[in-house]
Design a protein that fits this description.
Helix content: 25-40%
InterPro entries: Baseplate_J-like_C, Baseplate_J_M, Phage_Baseplate_Assmbl_Protein
Domain Baseplate J-like C-terminal: 261-343
Strand content: 25-35%
Structural class: alpha+beta
Family: Belongs to the Mu gp47/PBSX XkdT family.
Radius of gyration: 28 Å
Pfam family, one: Baseplate_J_M
Number of domains: 4
Domain Baseplate J-like central: 182-253
Distance between the termini: 52 Å
Number of helices: 8
Number of strands: 15
Strand order of the largest sheet: 5-7-1-4-3-2-6
């Protein structure tokens, strides 16, 4: 808005106000007196431009975005801790109970037992908030001595840990709040309630799915993957505290639609097939995440575009998605989950 308010433009206007019979050439007393003021005014206009951008939710970021969204009751979600399944064994691989609060480590990430599921099976919570708690699996090492413990394993993710909400996600929730007002238990409000639960990445609402007063809520986790039973229960419990009287709400996880992609690629010099496959898999996974609840199909053409834009890929042939060369349809409660990627040369 103030791009034209440059130092040169401001100084020129100031000099134009000085009578022509006075010396206002560069190096004159008048020029040297006005030049610092013009520089300060140009900086003030630049700061004003920045402030205008920070004021708008569309262009704001960081703490300024939080100030904007807080006016509508939308606050940034903090990082949450992952909860994992742990198994503990004694002699002869017999299940072994351990004390709640026992601490274990795997590759410098620590967990502690917070709930007993059954003999030898516990819920472990990562001591560090964020997605780092989702990444490791395998043998756990006890931080303190545990009598009788022979082997400990970290296995399934029960509730995925989530990093601090990004600006883009916070902005998206804010825009949804102001553009789709949530009132009186409408569909927008049920989605809003679901997104308020830590660990929920998105939700889809089906009003009147089983008759009058019924609502079905389909959710995914923060990684846009099918939700665990624990996360489903958390959302269900929270909805029960805020739903309108008389509403019968059913919360379920989205169903996974496995996606497999294969192709023959022509590689650029200096690239290896494994590195190209890894890069393509990451880009394709990001596309599938963006598609969850946002599209009714996986675009065959889009997959081809992603493959062709992968560094190291010059061309491809025989591209198939789930064994075919057409779009892959998604049912109402399905989300795409990347299963296999097979690239050959």
């Amino acid at each position: 808005m103030y791009e034209d308010q440059t130092y040169e433009a401001i100084l020129s206007r100031m000099l134009d106000r000085v009578p022509g019979d006075l010396d206002k050439r560069e190096g004159s007393i008048i020029y040297d007196a006005l030049s610092p003021a013009a520089a300060e005014l140009a900086q003030a206009y630049a700061d004003l431009e920045v402030n205008l951008r920070l004021f708008s939710a569309q262009t704001s970021s960081g703490a300024y975005l939080e100030l904007r969204t807080a006016d509508y009751g939308v606050t940034r979600k903090p990082a949450t801790k992952a909860q994992r399944m742990g198994q503990f064994f004694g002699q002869n691989d017999s299940p072994l109970d351990v004390a709640l609060g026992s601490r274990f480590s795997i590759e410098q990430v620590n967990y502690q037992t917070i709930q007993r599921i059954s003999i030898g099976q516990y819920v472990l919570e990562c001591e560090i908030a964020g997605s780092i708690g989702n990444q490791k699996a395998g043998t756990l090492l006890p931080i303190n001595y545990i009598n009788g413990l022979v082997r400990a394993e970290l296995i399934d993710i029960l509730v995925p840990g989530a990093d601090t909400e990004t600006d883009d996600n916070l902005r998206q929730r804010y825009l949804q709040r102001v553009r789709q007002p949530a009132t009186s238990g409408n569909a927008a409000q049920y989605r809003q309630w679901a997104l308020e639960v830590a660990g929920v990445g998105d939700a889809k609402v089906f009003p009147l799915w089983a008759g009058s007063g019924s609502v079905k809520l389909v959710i995914v986790d923060a990684g846009k993957q099918p939700a665990t039973s624990i996360l489903v229960d958390d959302v269900s419990d929270y909805i029960e505290t805020v739903r309108p009287i008389g509403a019968a709400v059913t919360v379920v996880s989205a169903a996974a639609k496995e996606i497999g992609v294969s192709a023959v690629v022509t590689l650029a010099a200096g690239y290896a097939i494994q590195g190209v496959t890894d890069a393509f898999r990451a880009a394709l996974g990001s596309y599938l995440q963006d598609t969850a609840f946002a599209s009714t199909y996986i675009s065959y053409a889009k997959v081809g575009t992603i493959l062709l834009s992968t560094p190291g890929v010059l061309d491809y042939t025989n591209l198939t998605v789930n064994g075919g060369s057409v779009n892959v349809a998604l049912a109402d409660e399905e989300i795409p989950v990347l299963e296999t990627v097979g690239l050959g040369v």
